[in-house]
């Protein structure tokens, strides 16, 4: 059975070509994403608001358990690609010169097949695993209990007698890198391609091919995603209202720029 799945995924992925792009192309994706944001401002900003409210809910639930909060926000970022599905749908329909609005987002969240649900479930597992690992690492090795952000800063980030912060960052990067490689174009591809042309494993394999064939542009893209998301978090989450839809629309253009079906 595993061989059958891997052979099918390989066939599906090989049906797609990977376009070559220059190192600085991610800046173009941001420009096109910004354009799409203001082509459908209500639907786009509404999704950004939902993400910001969800982040605020995490703050409320875990404000007195910062060891959990740090892992929860990291897991939240891992799930962001599938949570941006509605934004990909908006950009797709803008490309097709179709009318867009909240109904576009609604339909994207009610797909006719279950591939996006499966992918979201897999990302949720990865996010939950990171939350548990982060919590275990910080609570198990911090010299004192960590309750507030100040505790985390003092006992983990600025503690020069421990490498806990470096280990925590390294562990997070170890998980985030394969998740990024697996999802960077996979979810837009699943939204764009019919089920008989592309399955979950084929989409993941295609996404890995994109990253491996474009290490420099994709490293820049990852840095831009992380930097702008961090900026949104640093503005008391308010910046996420604009930054989340901006990056979601830009991610659609990254997919369209990098991947093409050989029959198209």
Automatic annotation (TrEMBL):
It comes from Roseateles paludis. It comes from the Bacteria. Keywords: Membrane, Transmembrane, Transmembrane helix. Pfam families: DUF2189. The keyword Cytoplasm does not apply. The chain crosses the membrane at residues 37-59, 66-90, 116-143, 164-191, 218-247. This is DUF2189 domain-containing protein. The lineage of its organism: Bacteria, Pseudomonadati, Pseudomonadota, Betaproteobacteria, Burkholderiales.
């Amino acid at each position: 059975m595993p061989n059958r799945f891997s052979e099918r995924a390989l066939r599906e992925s090989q049906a797609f070509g990977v376009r070559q792009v220059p190192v600085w192309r991610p800046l173009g994706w941001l420009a096109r994403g910004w354009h799409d944001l203001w082509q459908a401002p209500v639907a786009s900003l509404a999704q950004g608001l939902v993400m910001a409210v969800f982040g605020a809910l995490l703050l409320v639930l875990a404000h007195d358990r910062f060891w959990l909060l740090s892992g929860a926000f990291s897991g939240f970022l891992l799930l962001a690609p599938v949570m941006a599905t509605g934004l990909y749908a908006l950009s797709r329909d803008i490309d097709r010169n179709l009318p867009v609005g909240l109904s576009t987002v609604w339909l994207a969240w009610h797909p006719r097949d279950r591939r996006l649900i499966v992918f979201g479930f897999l990302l949720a597992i990865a996010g939950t695993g990171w939350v548990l690992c982060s919590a275990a690492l910080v609570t198990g090795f911090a010299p004192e209990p960590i309750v507030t952000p100040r505790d985390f800063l003092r006992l983990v980030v600025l503690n020069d007698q421990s490498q806990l912060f470096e280990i925590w960052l390294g562990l997070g990067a170890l998980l985030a890198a394969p998740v990024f490689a697996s999802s960077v174009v996979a979810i837009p591809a699943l939204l764009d391609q019919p089920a008989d042309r592309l399955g979950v494993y084929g989409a993941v394999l295609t996404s890995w091919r994109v990253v491996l064939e474009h290490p420099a542009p994709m490293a820049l893209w990852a840095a831009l995603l992380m930097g702008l998301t961090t900026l949104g978090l640093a503005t008391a989450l308010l910046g996420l209202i604009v930054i989340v839809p901006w990056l979601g629309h830009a991610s659609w253009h990254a997919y369209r720029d990098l991947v093409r079906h050989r029959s198209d």
